[in-house]
Amino acid sequence: MDPIGGGQFKQAVQQMIEAEKQPIKNLEARKAKEDTRLKLFQEFKSKFSGFDKVLNEISSFKKFRDLKVDLGNGENQVSVTIDKGKAEPGQYLIKIDELAARTSTLSNGFENPDEPFLGIGFINLNLENGESTEIYINENTSSLQGIASAINNTSNSPIRASVIRDDSDPELPWRLLMVGKKEGSTNNIEFPEFYFMDSQKDFYIDEDHESKNASLSIDGFSIESENNDIPNFLPGVNLHLKQANPENPFFITITEDYQKISGKLKGLIDQTNQVLQFITSQNAIDQSTDTTTTFGGDSSLQAVEYKIRNIIHQPYFLNSKNSENASHFFINQIGIEFEKTGQITFREEKFNKALEDNFEGIAQVISGPSGLAQQFRSLIDSYMRSSDGFLTIKEKGLKSRIKDIDDQIDRKTIILEKKKQSLTDKFSRLQATLGQLQSQQQYLSAALPAGGSGGNVISQLMGG
Q1: What phi and psi, each to the nearest 5 degrees, are found at residue 212?
Q2: Of 52-56, 187-191, 328-332, which range is least confident?
Q3: Which among 29, 119, 266, 445 is least surrounded, fewest beta carbons within 10 Å?
Q4: Where in the chain are the domains?
Q5: Quick one: which of 184, 205, 200 has its CA closest to 123?
C-alpha cells in the first residue's frame, strides 16, 4: 500500500541507500585500480622467472664453454660425442684399418626355414659363465627358426641366432647365422655342436669368422680396440667406428663452439631486456596516462633498472694471457652495451673476437666467482627470495592493500544493510499510519454532512 502513490516511499528509501553507497563505490573503484596494478606487477615478476635457466648455463667455466667436432671427410667412418667438461680443443689424424668383429658362423642353405626337417637331437652350447648346457630339439622344433629360437631363449647364451635369406643360391636361400654378442679377440667363442637323428637333410657350418680387435692409428701411432665403441678415446672424447677405410685418413678437430657460447650469453641479455622493456613502458607516460593503474615513476622499479645498469657498467677483473696481473675490464669491450632506448645490445662478432683473443680470460669475466653471471645471480636472488625478496614484499604489499579495501567494503556493506533495514522499518510504520489516516478520512467524509469542513482537514493532512 502506498498512500502517496507512484511508489514514492520505496523510491525515497532507494535514493537514500544509493547516496549511502557512494563510499563503497569509491572503494570498489580503488580496488579495481589496485587489482590492475597487482596483475601488472605479477607480469613484471614473471620476467624474472627465466633468469635461473640462462644463468645456470654460464654459472661456471665448464658450463660456459661449449665444444664442437669437425670430422672433415671422416663422417662416414666415425661418429664422435664429447664431454665438454673433460675434452680439450685439438686436432688429431685418424686412420681406420679394420673394425672390431664378433665371432660368427653361417650354416648351409635350406629350402624352407619353418620346415622341421632335422628330426630330433640336441645342441651342446657353452654359456657365458663358463658352464655348458644341452638344448633338446624335438621333431616339431627341428627347423631353422626352431633352432634359432631355442638358442636365443637359453639364459646366458653368448650368441644370437638369426635366420637370413641368401639368394646366391635361389633353390636353398635360407641359412642360420650365429653371431657372438661381444666384439674383440678376447671374446672369441666356441660355437654350439649340433647332433641330430633321423634328419631329412644334413646340417653343417658352411663358413665361420673369428672375432678380432679394431685396428686404427692416431697421429701415426697404431692402436687396437676390442670394441667399435671406444669410450674416452681421448679425454672426454667417445669414438664410434662405423667403417674401415685405410686409404682415407681424416682429421678430428675439436674447437670451442663460439656460436653456442654466444647463444648462452644472448639468452641472458634477452631475459634482461624483457625486464628493462617493462620498466621503460611504465615510464612512458603523458597527460592522458592514468598513473594510478601503472607503475610510472615507481621508485622501486627505477632501483631495479639502476642496479642492472650498474652490473653492466661496473669493471671486472681480466687475467691477461701474457701477464700474471689482472686488469680492469668493462663488459662493453665484449659487445654488451646499452642503447639510447634503454635496451641492451649484444654485438656477437665483437664477443667472438674477444673469445679468440683470450678465451679463458673472457670466461672468467663471465663465469668467474665475481663475474657477470654471479653478479646477476646475487641480484636476482635478492629479488626472488620467498621470505624477504623485493618482488615478494612488493607483491604482498599490493595484495595487502586489496585485502584492506575488501575489509572496508565488507564493513560498510554491513552498516549499509542495517541502515537500509532501519529506513525500511521507519517508512513502513509511516506508511501504515498514513493508511489509517486515509481510512479515517474516508469514514469521516462519509459520516459528516456534505459541505462540512472536516473532510478538507483530513485531505490536508493526507496531502490531498
Answers
A1: -155, 160
A2: 187-191
A3: 29
A4: 47-61+258-384, 67-100+214-256, 102-209
A5: 205
